Amino acid sequence: MLIQIHMLQNYAPSNLNRDDTGSPKNAYFGGILRGRISSQCLKRSIRTSETFAESFKYEGLLAKRTKLLPGLIRDELKAMGVDEATVEAIVHRVPEIGSESGRGAGKVEEEGEALETRQLIFIGQNELRPLAEKLLALYQEYGDKKWKDKKIAEITKSLGPSLPRSVDVAMFGRMTTSNAFKDVQAAVQVAHALSVNALEQEFDYFTAVDDISGESGAGMIGDVEYNSSTYYKYFNIHWEGLCENLGDDVGVARQAVLALLEAAATAQPSGKQNTFAAHNLPDLILVEVREKNLPISYANAFLQPAHQDPKHTLMDNAVAKLDDYMARIGQTYDLEQIDQRAMTTVQDYTLPETEVMPSLSKLQEWLAALLPEG
């Protein structure tokens, strides 16, 4: 089963997701420059959202992406009551995890600095204790001298892969270069959000005055680039893949899908929000449920950019384009026969063969009724 989420969301002037020069990200689409929010940015806003925290944090079902694995293992070993010498001997090898290919270990411990692995590792809280226990058992099996002399590849191979039970790893996947962690194929795909309108980048020139010096004129001069765009966002969830990644825990999988829908709608990228406060919710959220694994983005509805006119807003015309494209592609590929669709919208918009729900919570209830229960 495939669950697809489509959104149209207009942002006030903002710089939500910056490139290496500090400019809002963009991309050419249909031969025309568009605003862009990267999928990485959207996924991070979702997995760090209040919605995910409330749903999963206290159940230990959320992961962290970090290089500070050695310190986390040290904390677990100390909590297990392991003596200090053994703890330090074990932790001393942990920065090498992820470096089995021989490309160099992570940071060695220096005064005032934490031990680090060479690569970021996406690890769930519920993986730390089992990993610490396996490291301890292996250290005791080898003995101190053999432990220090063993190649890290042999150690991680002996540990066996750690299988995550974290919702965000199950959804967004994990890839490491270490045998100590099981790679996870993402069950959720997230597209880069693209503006339905042609991009018009603008600059805000600003100055700051020294409050104490008494001098007139600017104590600081700068500028920041920004734009205001209406974005099309697209997500899909492969239900069977999500269940498999969660160890066939259908209850958690159901909870995860509903939380993702809410977080995708309400979580905001954090870029320059203190400057722009562009906290704008989607005007339209469409959910499709399909037994056939046939993902379809409707981004091509906006190959020709949407525009505002005297009688219609940019959002009005974006919805009209989406309406027309859905009807055309649905008829061409007989999608009306395989889809179940529902939407919620701020305005009185309609889409082909689509139930209209009065609120996001009602849309979640509609989706929940279609998800398997076990």
In a few lines, what is going on in this structure?
With 374 residues, this protein is α+β, with helices and mostly antiparallel strands.
How many H/I helical runs? 13
Q: Give the helix/strand class.
A: alpha+beta
Strand content: 15-25%
Order of helices and strands: EEEHHEHHEHHHHEEEEEHHHEHEEH
Provide the number of structural domains: 2
- Report the span from N to C terminus: 14 Å
Q: Outline the low-pLDDT stretches.
A: none
Q: Which shape, going by the Cα principal axes?
A: globular
Radius of gyration: 25 Å
How many DSSP E strands? 13
Work out the helicity level: 25-40%
Mean pLDDT: 90
Largest sheet: 9 strands, mixed
Describe this structure in words.
Helix content is 35%, strand content 20%. The chain is α+β, with helices and mostly antiparallel strands and 374 residues long. The chain has 2 domains: 2-61 and 186-370, no CATH class; 64-165, no CATH class. Strands 1, 2, 3, 6, 7, 10, 11, 12 and 13 form a 9-stranded mixed β-sheet that branches. A hairpin with a 2-residue loop joins β2 and β3 (32-37). α3 runs antiparallel to α4 (84-91). The relative contact order is 0.18. The mean pLDDT is 90.
Topology, pairings included?
Elements lengths: L1 E9 L15 E4 L2 E6 L1 H9 L2 H7 L6 E4 L2 H11 L4 H8 L29 E4 H18 L1 H6 L2 H8 L7 H6 L15 E3 L2 E3 L6 E7 L11 E7 L3 E9 H7 L4 H17 L6 H4 L7 E7 L23 H20 L5 E7 L9 E3 L2 H11 L4
Parallel strand pairs: 12-13
Antiparallel strand pairs: 1-10, 1-11, 2-3, 3-7, 4-5, 6-10, 7-10, 8-9, 11-12
Helix pairs in contact: 2-10, 3-4, 3-5, 10-13
